[in-house]
UniProtKB/TrEMBL annotation:
Keywords: Golgi apparatus, Lipid-binding, Membrane. It holds the Pfam family GPP34. The keyword Acyltransferase does not apply. It is a peripheral membrane protein. It is found in: Golgi apparatus membrane. The lineage of its organism: Bacteria, Bacillati, Actinomycetota, Actinomycetes, Kitasatosporales. The keyword Cytoplasm does not apply. This is Golgi phosphoprotein 3 GPP34. Its main location: Golgi. One of its GO terms (molecular function) is phosphatidylinositol-4-phosphate binding. InterPro entries: GPP34-like, GPP34-like_sf. GO terms for cellular component: cytoplasm; endomembrane system.
Length: 218
């Protein structure tokens, strides 16, 4: 008997939830999605028992690389086991900020190559190139939304579901992804607080919003 193909990883599932299938653009700001994708990679590696977090710092505990090429490549950018003393490891928030753009681009490329997304280049105002990624495999996107809705209705009973549920509002996606469209702010704050990966994403999103409000950039 041939085993069924593996389901989407956390970063893939998040990307399918975040993309507007018709417009081919994320529902949230692109940079916010980059942060969330980086957080999802860390969460996936933690679920596989390859990294651990203490006091908002990340370190590899199992150096055996995962079979999936993308998280394997990204894991190489994290401190190896036993490196450094007190305060060893990478800052979770710092890694999310600096790796986010690379992570987002890598997963977009991967889903385009697999025929799940389609890449289109258009000109903004006839001058600047603008990339769009409409969803081709609409059944996969619909399945991702259905799984999320079912888990949401059940109160996100498993750890993987709670991690995904925390990353969604951390990236400002809750009103587009949730079944109700009007998320309970107290509940979403609690979810974010529970998950260190979501906290790292949320802090970067909040920092960017603060920079924009103050006219600064980073």
């Amino acid at each position: 008997m041939i085993p069924p193909p593996p389901g989407p990883t956390l970063p893939e599932e998040l990307l399918l939830l975040a993309m507007d299938p018709q417009r081919g653009r994320p529902y949230c700001g692109k940079r916010f999605l980059d942060y969330a994708m980086a957080g999802a990679v860390l969460a996936e590696l933690e679920l596989q028992g390859r990294i651990t977090e203490q006091r908002e710092r990340v370190q590899v505990v199992n150096p055996l690389e995962p079979p999936d090429q993308l998280p394997a490549t990204l894991m190489r950018g994290l401190p190896a086991p036993g490196k450094g003393g007190r305060g060893a490891g990478a800052s979770a928030g710092g890694w999310v900020r600096h790796a986010g753009r690379q992570v987002g681009a890598m997963y977009l490329d991967a889903l385009v190559k697999r025929g799940i997304l389609r890449r289109e280049t258009r000109r903004f105002l006839g001058l600047l190139p603008c990339l769009r990624h409409p969803v081709v495999a609409k059944d996969l996107a619909a399945q991702a939304r259905h799984r999320y809705a079912v888990a949401e209705q059940a109160g996100f009973p498993d750890h993987r579901g709670r991690v995904l549920a925390a990353l969604v509002p951390a990236a400002d996606l809750a009103r587009f992804v949730g079944a109700t469209g009007s998320p309970d702010r107290t509940a979403t704050r609690r979810l974010i607080h529970e998950q260190w990966t979501a906290r790292a994403v949320y802090r970067n999103v909040r920092q960017d919003k603060s920079n924009q409000a103050g006219g600064g950039s980073r």
